[in-house]
């Protein structure tokens, strides 16, 4: 389906994660996984595994799959061409009322400082499909593990993409009664986060979508990637299959 999009004149850019695969490799190596606020605490050893799995395994598997069906995919990490400049992220854990919040060091967990899109413009122009692992580079050459949803949103914003599409394992954004919200605005999304209607992994997707739209992306979509041809159904049918997020 990604190759088809390229053939019909669209320029897909693929950003992937790999949390389950990282978890399995760490388990095999007897390296414990620790999460704080939904983010993996990433020390030096864990960062080596994250980079090995994301860049060396998952990325190349996706590249290979696209190339096998006639596409021209190129695998990148944020280090290639200085694509993703990153900075360290810290997590503030709220304490009791009479104590200040505790700042927790998550290790090599980062956030995007800047996207240098020149390499993506070049690849798109030459009809390649970029496949990007969410590993960024700090000012001092440090390596950072970054949430893939946030990376996708930042790249979409930098490219002024027409659409940002998140593939997940639920039908889309659900209301309090677990019904699908087929269309929502930025204000709707902010309200759903504020009143805790959405939780867990859906929060970074909605936050990334909102930021991307504010940066110039026309629409964002959160859809169930388990459905065959999910991207095509969302893009080329009237109603779509998941949740569409628009500016107004």
User: How large is the share of residues in beta strands?
Assistant: 25-35%
Number of helices: 8
Low-confidence stretches: none
> Topology as H/E string?
HEHEEHEEEHEEEHEEHHEHE
Average pLDDT confidence is 90
Fraction of helical residues? 25-40%
Biggest sheet, spatial arrangement of strands: 10-12-13-11
Assign an overall shape.
Answer: globular
Kindly report how far apart the N and C termini lie: 29 Å
Whole-angstrom Rg: 18 Å
Sheet of most strands: 4 strands, mixed
Question: How many E-type strands?
Answer: 13
Q: SS-based structural class? A: alpha/beta
Summarize the structure in words.
With 248 residues, the chain is α/β, with parallel strands linked by helices. It contains eight helices and 13 strands. It has helices at residues 2-7, 19-28, 44-68, 118-125, 148-159, 186-194, 202-214, 230-236; strands at 14-15, 35-36, 39-40, 73-77, 84-93, 102-115, 129-133, 135-137, 143-145, 163-168, 183-185, 219-224, 243-246. It has a four-stranded mixed beta sheet with strand order 10-12-13-11, sandwiched between helices. A three-stranded parallel beta sheet has the order 1-7-4, sandwiched between helices. The chain has a two-stranded antiparallel ribbon with strand order 2-3. The longest helix is centred in the N-terminal third of the chain and has 25 residues, at 44-68. The mean pLDDT is 90.
């Amino acid at each position: 389906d990604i190759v088809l999009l390229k053939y019909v004149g669209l320029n897909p850019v693929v950003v992937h994660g790999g949390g389950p695969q990282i978890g399995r490799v760490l388990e095999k190596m007897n390296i414990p996984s620790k999460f704080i606020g939904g983010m993996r605490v990433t020390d030096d050893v864990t960062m080596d595994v994250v980079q090995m799995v994301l860049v060396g395994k998952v990325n190349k598997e996706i590249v290979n799959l696209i190339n096998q069906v006639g596409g021209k995919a190129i695998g990148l990490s944020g280090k290639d061409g200085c694509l993703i400049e990153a900075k360290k992220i810290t997590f503030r854990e709220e304490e009791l009322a009479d104590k200040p919040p505790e700042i927790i060091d998550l290790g090599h967990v980062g956030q995007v400082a800047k996207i240098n899109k020149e390499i993506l413009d070049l690849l798109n122009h030459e009809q390649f499909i970029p496949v990007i692992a969410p590993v960024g580079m700090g000012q001092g050459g440090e390596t950072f593990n970054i949430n893939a949803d946030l990376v996708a949103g930042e790249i979409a914003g930098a490219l002024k993409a027409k659409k940002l599409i998140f593939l997940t394992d639920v039908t889309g954004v659900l209301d309090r009664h677990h019904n699908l919200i087929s269309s929502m605005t930025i204000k709707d999304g902010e309200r759903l986060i504020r009143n805790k209607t959405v939780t867990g992994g859906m929060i970074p997707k909605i936050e990334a979508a909102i930021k991307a739209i504010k940066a110039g992306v026309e629409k964002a979509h959160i859809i169930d990637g388990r459905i065959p041809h999910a991207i095509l159904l969302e893009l080329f049918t009237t109603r779509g299959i998941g949740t569409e997020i628009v500016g107004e």
